[in-house]
Design goal:
The protein has 394 residues and is an alpha/beta fold. Helix content is 39%, strand content 15%. The protein is built from twelve helices and 15 strands. Helix 10 (291-318) runs parallel beside helix 12 (378-392). The longest helix is centred in the last third of the chain and has 28 residues, at 291-318. The radius of gyration is 21 Å and the shape is globular.
């Protein structure tokens, strides 16, 4: 018996576990200090009333023989897939029902989708990046190359047609940088993938924060994407399902190569390894896409958008360079005074008890940068901004 030796190629601790550990040690040593957390991208507002009502309805269904549900369809119940289909149609994207797969979140599917690809593929990932993209490929022993995202390109790297890649990760609006590609920029990426015979794994988890119509809500708004892209989305951010767990993955039937059809391969994989999202959760998720649910959810999103604006305006007043904050819940700022990412983390925590996420944890190019999130309560956000502004004006 041998363990997977590729685990030794990863960092010892997951980024957010390290952040949580440092905060716990500080709080234990300073029990009198109130710590304000703007680090992890977890929501704080409760689920919308329409969602709660639907969840209760799902529970009631399970109490009666005539409406009880056992194992559900591997790809999700039609009522939820039809709701997702309608959501895409409003954005001008036509999808067939069998191109939509319900899951327990984008994070799971972004890792699990690798089951349908060869281990010999070369993977192109932006740096800095959400750690799951890198870690899941390192676990499998794939070759990973990086597209340099940096201050000069606004943390929006474009493809180098001299570089060959098989699998390409794109997240827009981006986690951690908050930067978002225009439709024209995404068209260049689609053209690159098509030319290389590659597939784009497109993380659209933050599409709900886009207010600028020049930005894409879906990769499938880009001509040519149906033959070279898979899209992942989650209800965690749009509807607060971080603890409820539900998302969806879109795989067009047009995505095929060498006799293999990605859509059918994914269904085969899911039917072997996955039993689906609970019926009760899917009932709640379907309510997200109703007129009533969407109105309530937009009110919640407006709170987070205002928080992002509050943080961004603070950076403007301080003259600190940043991306995000406008079409994203993340503000990616340049550490003041030339501080390193973890140095700035310790400085904020120790001086004003504000927690963010060190950019170095997202990759080499993240060193010297720092991520703040807008998912705290308005009161927490405003107090944290006041503390930071007072400290950093020094």
């Amino acid at each position: 018996m041998k363990y997977n030796e590729h685990f030794s190629d990863m960092t010892e601790n997951y980024l957010f576990a390290e952040v949580a550990d440092r905060v716990a040690r500080y709080s234990k040593a300073h029990p009198d200090k109130k710590v304000l957390k703007l680090g992890i991208g977890d929501v704080t507002l409760p689920l919308a009333p329409a969602v709660i009502e639907a969840l209760h309805s799902g529970v009631d269904d399970m109490a009666k023989a005539e409406t009880f549900k056992g194992y559900g369809p591997y790809e999700g119940y039609d009522f939820l897939r039809e709701a997702v289909q309608g959501y895409y149609k409003k954005a001008g994207v036509e999808l067939a029902l069998d191109e939509i797969f319900i899951s327990d979140g984008a994070k799971s599917d972004l890792g699990n989708i690798l089951d349908i690809f060869s281990e010999n593929n070369t993977v192109l990932i932006p740096d800095p990046v959400y750690p799951v993209y890198v870690d899941t490929n390192v676990m499998a022993g794939r070759k990973v190359i990086y597209a340099s995202a940096n201050e000069a390109n606004g943390f929006l790297p474009m493809p180098d047609f001299h570089v060959d890649a098989d699998i390409i990760y794109i997240c827009s609006p981006n986690n951690p940088t908050g930067a978002a590609y225009t439709k024209e920029q995404l068209k260049v990426w689609v053209d690159y993938a098509s030319k290389k015979g590659a597939v784009i794994l497109y993380d659209a988890a933050y599409e709900c924060f886009i207010k600028d119509d020049t930005l894409a809500r879906s990769i499938f708004q880009i001509p040519g994407a149906r033959t070279c892209a898979i899209e992942f989305c989650s209800l965690s951010k749009i509807a607060g399902f971080t603890g409820t767990r539900c998302g969806y993955t879109v795989i067009p039937m047009d995505l095929k190569k060498g006799g293999f059809i990605a859509n059918r391969m994914w269904l085969r994989r899911q039917s072997t390894k996955y039993n689906g999202v609970p019926y009760i959760v899917q009932k709640g998720a379907a309510a997200v896409f109703t007129d009533e649910g969407m109105a309530q959810i937009k009110a919640n999103l407006a709170v987070y958008q205002k928080n992002a604006d509050t943080i961004a305006k603070c950076m403007d007043r301080l003259g600190i360079w940043y991306t995000g904050g406008k079409n994203s819940p993340y503000i990616w700022l340049k550490c003041p005074g030339g501080m390193g990412s973890w140095e700035f983390f310790d400085y904020l925590l120790g001086e004003v008890q504000v927690v963010g996420t060190p950019g170095a944890g997202f990759g080499k190019n993240g060193e010297g940068f720092f991520r703040l999130t807008a998912f705290g309560s308005p009161a927490t956000t405003e107090e944290a901004v006041e503390r930071m502004e007072k400290l950093l004006r020094k």
